[in-house]
Amino acid sequence: MSELLSIQGVPLVGLYIRASEDYAVVGVRDEKVIQIVEEELEVKAIRTTIAGSELVGAMVAMNSTGAVVCRHVRQKEIEKISRYIDVRVVDTNMTCLGNNILINDYGAIVHPELDRALIEEISDFFGIKILVGTIGGIKTVGMSACVTNKGALVNPNSTEWEMKRLSDILKVPVEKGTINFGSDMVGTGVVANTKGYIAGRDTTGFELGVVEEALGFI
Hints:
Radius of gyration: 15 Å
CATH superfamily: L-arginine/glycine Amidinotransferase, Chain A
Number of domains: 1
Order of helices and strands: EHEEHEHEEHEHEEHEHEEHEEEH
Strand content: 25-35%
Number of strands: 15
Largest sheet: 3 strands, mixed
CATH topology: L-arginine/glycine Amidinotransferase, Chain A
Shape: globular
């Protein structure tokens, strides 16, 4: 059963939470949110900000190997996260790495303007192949899609070519859909791993059906 959630009255749950198979970084100090995340995704929640921001879903890219954050992260935040997972701090002006990297345990696609040397560093850290590209013509690929190790939900404007590249690099089936009553920026409105998912409060029943099919829950 899905859990519909708003955080501080906002249904953009993907901006406040970033999850892998075993952990989730949660940006808000809200025990109810943390409880829902841990129960629905079957993970340990790590409560912290990133670079002082509650929008940790936008700020951090992570999979089962670890997490990548920008150089503006604070030492206390690094210490809190690194108790549980490996953290790589990278030198980039593109601070919202969660918005600009779409990643699972098999591969990643990143914003086409991300520095090549940085892409190599991230690829080496995660031990995966990385492509540059867009999803639905959107460069902020982490906002335009949600991926797990079982499937991907992508912006409804995605082309067949984009979807084929995504499926090849992430090694999962890819489906188009929307979230939060028609939003095409699906990565902002759903958080998922292979064990469960949480969708924004405004998501319709039809949209939930598409999410569940795309992410391999039915």
